[in-house]
What does this fold into?
Amino acid sequence: MNIRNRIKAFRTVTPDEVAPNPRNWRTHPQPQRDALRGLLAQVGIVAPVIAYETPNGLMLIDGHERMTVGVPFPCAILDVNEDEANTLLATFDPLTAMAGADAEALDALLRDVSTDSPALTQMLADVAQASNLYTDGPDAPEEFAAYDENLETEYCCPKCKYEWSGQPK
It folds into this structure.
């Protein structure tokens, strides 16, 4: 297989130096935008945006939301034509999304990740849920009474109406 390196340059670009691709089909919901900003605040910039040269200047292929943050980003400038850029635009994210998850490895990784960002915490919880981690709780003991809306209780709090059985405290 003959694989060409299509990256012709790296340079830092400001948001006004690179145009958003009008054919970009990806949307960025607020939770994703919040998680991105939380990651940038916690770790910093770790990956370049990707663009190609057009007669009117640089055009984004990947990194549209990152460029809205308003700070300079490293940029991988590709030697591709418009048709190739369109192919990359259509396939870059879906190709990444095809990857599976090793639940055991993900569990071990998530146990070692910490963040103060509520948006990142929620995103990681969503990743865990999508990978079916932490969904199986312990089984109830056999002698444990099944919950029923008509379960009889011994006591009722006169103020909040909470009902329970067992010794009142």
The chain has a mean pLDDT of 90.
